[in-house]
């Protein structure tokens, strides 16, 4: 994005700000136009193209990443509001030995077709698994006093903010269920 003079934002420019954010474990310092979304900062400034720009309105979930461990639609968040925050993208989910068990389960269950929504689906699924492990209920959780059991209905409800035009939903649910260790 450009400021009123047509040049790129610089430090001290009234339309830009510096932000230091940790992305996938690495601290990154950026000077960004104040209107830059987290999605655009990741893709255009950091070269992390896993999160996709689908609707750019927070409706499809293709841009889902983890912010401080919680699922967010990165197209809706201004990057300059994230100073000192921790962001994890699909690129940051794999470990030094290769893909994470969740990523492996997506492959094993053919939980994608065109693949466009897959990075957002995987980040959202990671969030679902973490929420359930913390005991956070959803709208369909039956027992609010015990541990959350990730049934198919529970997974579908929690993943409902991520759309798949190819309709790979049964495979996505199976991948999440396998990773959760739910039969």
Automatic annotation (TrEMBL):
PROSITE patterns documented for this protein: 2FE2S_FER_1, 2FE2S_FER_2
This protein's record includes keyword Transport: no
The keyword Phosphoprotein is annotated on this UniProt entry: no
Pfam families named in the record: Fer2 (PF00111), Fer2_2 (PF01799)
Key words of the record: Iron, Metal-binding, Oxidoreductase
InterPro entries xref list: 2Fe-2S-bd, 2Fe-2S-bd_dom_sf, 2Fe-2S_ferredoxin-like_sf, 2Fe-2S_ferredoxin-type, 2Fe2S_fd_BS, Aldehyde_Oxdr_Iron-Sulfur, Beta-grasp_dom_sf
Domain of life: Bacteria
Residue ranges of every copy of the 2Fe-2S ferredoxin-type domain listed in the record: 17-93
The protein's name in its UniProt record: 2Fe-2S iron-sulfur cluster-binding protein
Organism for this UniProt entry: Micromonospora globbae
């Amino acid at each position: 994005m450009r400021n009123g003079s047509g040049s790129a934002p610089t430090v001290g420019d009234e339309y830009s700000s510096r932000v230091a954010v940790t992305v996938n474990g690495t601290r990154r310092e950026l000077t960004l136009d104040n209107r830059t979304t987290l999605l655009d900062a990741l893709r255009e400034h950091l070269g992390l193209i896993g999160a996709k720009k689908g609707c750019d309105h927070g409706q499809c979930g293709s841009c889902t990443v983890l912010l401080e461990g919680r699922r967010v639609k990165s197209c809706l968040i201004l990057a300059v509001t994230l100073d000192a925050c921790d962001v994890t993208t699909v690129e940051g989910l794999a470990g030094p030995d290769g893909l994470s068990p969740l990523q492996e389960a997506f492959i094993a269950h053919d939980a994608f077709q065109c693949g466009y929504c897959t990075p957002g689906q995987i980040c959202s699924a990671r969030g679902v698994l973490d929420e359930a492990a913390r005991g956070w209920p959803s709208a369909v959780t039956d027992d609010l006093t015990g541990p959350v059991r990730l049934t198919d209905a529970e997974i579908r409800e929690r993943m409902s903010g991520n759309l798949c035009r190819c309709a790979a939903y049964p495979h996505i649910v199976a991948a999440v269920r396998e990773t959760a260790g739910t039969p």
